[in-house]
Amino acid sequence: MQQSKVSRRLKETTAAEVNEFIYRPRLEGFAGGFAALGDINKAHLIMLAECGLIRGEHAATLARGVLAMEAAGPAAVPLDPAREDAYFNYEAHLIAQIGADVGGRLHTGRSRNDILATLDRLRCREVLMDVLDALHEVRGAALGNAERFASTVMPGYTHLQPAQPITYGYYLAAVEQALARDCQRLEQALVSMNQSPLGAAAFAGTPFAIDRARTAELLGFDGYVDNALDAVGSRDFILESLSHLSLLAVFWSRVAQDYFVWSTHEFALIDFPDSVAATSSIMPQKKNLTVLEYLKGRSGHIVGLLMGASMTVKGTNFTHTGDGNREGTRGFWEAAEETLRCLKLLALVLRTATPNAGVALAKAGEDFSTATGLADLIVREADLSFREAHHVVGAAVRMAMDAGLPAHRIDSAMVDTCAMAQLGHPLGLDPQQLRQCLDPAANVQARASAGGPAQATLLPALQRAGQHLASARQANQARRERLAAAQQRLQRATQAQAAQ
């Protein structure tokens, strides 16, 4: 009778259905995780040798074998689903190269469980740095056009109704600021998850006198997860990262929705080049912004992956389980790939969207979004409470609408008529001041309070945002350099061990 290829406890070969539907799909990502798995093996090997847990000649042979596998690449490793997963296939190939006695010694003081947990953290760390780099590009695109269009007036909306004039640059500055918070969340996730599980073994540690701090250092971790059960039983860093990607996706979908509305013929505030559009198979006049629909649609998919992962993990025991630590993490890798694609598309949108400045300015002057400015004028010049001014202006807006007049046609006489009806006396506003407050460009420049759209406020804010972005870029680059340096030290240590 044939036995299991990985255990003498199991007296039967793995069922074909289990191989086909569980183990074979797990091996599809072998090439992507091969380098990280090799690093884990090198770090563990160096630690075992330094702690005297394997003999020097065995460590040298293992080091040469691991380096030879690294040089040959993942394609040289036969993948057999009957060996269950990447680690056993890697180990089987190593044993085939250097022999069972020496090759089998690499597993001293560890488990597949802590190897898998470490592999997940290494991969997640790399993914989050890639997402941060992509986010920095999007923020750069937003800031570049925010400065370019800092004075391009357009209507601002609340409840999708004309509210107050802003500038397109001001809108982009807000987009960049929100994306900066997404970066902060991901950076915090990177810091908290950069702890090594290696050496936790199955979940209860090991009787061998290993040095977990050393393997953590060799792999570029800031330390190690102290409790071995938590180290292998938790994938909260995956759920945390996935939740941050979901928040990011929800936000980019809102931005895409703005552009989707603004680019319609009815709004005509924004235009896109034909290179980012599609057409209709039947209606020749159509210019469909597929990129915006993709961004909106994929955000729902990413949120769904978060919900799926959360529901998978919630019913598992707090220890190492296949459903919690394997099935519960699957959605993150898919979400991360989709996020990177969508961020490139979002950067394209922010770079190529162009405001129809004339249309936007005209709408802002006609759609009564300057009415708040008139109420503010009345408060300042007529010494009324804001609520009284609100009633007067509301009546004036209603009068203008009934007469078919745009906002900029409201004059002092109309305001006095409404004031008489509301308050019993006219206000006698200066006609020039009234015209100025109803001018959308002047209205914007009057809003110079902290965080407002006036150029006196916006331009310094853009400068600060640019400095923050530069610092964030540098921090991520420094993080990459630190990890690259750790990897070089690991490589040199392995080569030195191999030369003994």
Automatic annotation (TrEMBL):
Organism listed in the record = Pseudomonas typographi
Pfam family, any one: ASL_C2
Tell me what reaction this enzyme catalyses: 2-(N(omega)-L-arginino)succinate = fumarate + L-arginine
Q: What is this protein called?
A: Argininosuccinate lyase
What gene does the UniProt entry assign to this protein? argH
Among HAMAP family, the record links this protein to: Arg_succ_lyase
Coiled-coil region(s) = 469-496
**InterPro entries, alphabetically?**
Arg_succ_lyase_C, Argininosuccinate_lyase, Fumarase/histidase_N, Fumarate_lyase_fam, Fumarate_lyase_N, L-Aspartase-like
Per the database record, which ranges form the Argininosuccinate lyase C-terminal domain? 368-444
Q: Which family does it belong to?
A: In the N-terminal section; belongs to the lyase 1 family. Argininosuccinate lyase subfamily.
Tell me which EC number(s) this protein carries. Answer: 4.3.2.1
Sequence ranges assigned to domain Fumarate lyase N-terminal in this UniProt record: 76-304
